[in-house]
Amino acid sequence: MHLLFTATAACAVTISFALGLAGLYSVVRGGLHFRALMAERTSNDHEILLNSPLVPALSLVASVTDASPSALAFIRRLLEFQYGNHELIVALDGLASNEVETWKREFRLAVSDADMEESLPSARVRCLYEPRDAVPMLVVCKEKGGLADSLNAAVNAARHPLIGYVAPDAPVRPTAFLRLVRPMLHDTERIAARCDAEPGSLGSPFALLESLRAWLGRRGPGYCMLARREAVLRADGFRGGPAALFSRLKPGTKAGLARPIADTAAWILVIAGVVLGWLSLEWLALVALATIGMGILESMTAAVCSEAAGREFAHPADLVKLFLAAIPENLGYRQWRSLRLLRG
Q1: For 48-205+220-253, which CATH class?
Q2: How far apart are CA 307 and CA 319, in angstroms?
Q3: In whole angstroms, what is the distance from residue 64 CA to residue 156 CA?
Q4: Model pLDDT for residues 79-134, shown as the tens digit of each residue
């Protein structure tokens, strides 16, 4: 029993340390990635991508649940996106007849005879509309089914090989998909790409460090995504939100809970072993190095890499404060966050 417990504790500490190294690696890699993106911005190839026949066509999908000014403004903003061959598919999710009339009036919509597949499950489609003007837009008027259901309907109506999605409140530039399509042009086997929002000023340095780690490690939900339509169909479409689909297309994004579980298990096992007299006090130092030590190193690295990746600080002292905040963050706050994550 003693030997089995010791082996289990050693395994837990090793896994915790390995996940810490993986987190550190992802932060450094993210910093280099965003640094490279900064260099790309200096070489403006947007005109080339806009006019190149080699860039796959894009179907931008969106879902709205009312005819509010914010919903109308969101769709107008999507129509301003810059991309070569593209279309906008808008799903009106369970709108009342007067709300549909508002959309028809605002965008000069008329009944469309466009074809629509039924590859993905969705609520019943009432009618298809398209603008009388020369606007690359198709509107799917359907029964209420929720966000995932509506996006599935939009994918069914899409005609192009790439599917794009933008969160309604995302601070996205009109050229976002020209940037996202670049890695898919370089790697034809790549099936998805996304943009993550750079963390703003979140008040607490602990919260900012947490956001920076997610941003650099690209473990956040993403606010703008691009995927190959055939891959979306193979994944059975949107079951939850767009982030859930991206997680299925890129399974590595599901590992957010692995480290809190490993860290918590390592601490429980080592403390229990010390109390029972099966493990020496040196084990406490070992688990502290694997969890607290690696956490401090990762957070400090995130602070430095964020500056290297182009994040601007109002004053150099702000970067120093954030760098030093990595120490107290890992002496209680991060452990408390891990427990909250585990409790759901």
Answers
A1: alpha beta
A2: 8
A3: 16
A4: 999 998 999 999 999 999 999 999 999 999 999 999 999 999 999 999 999 999 99
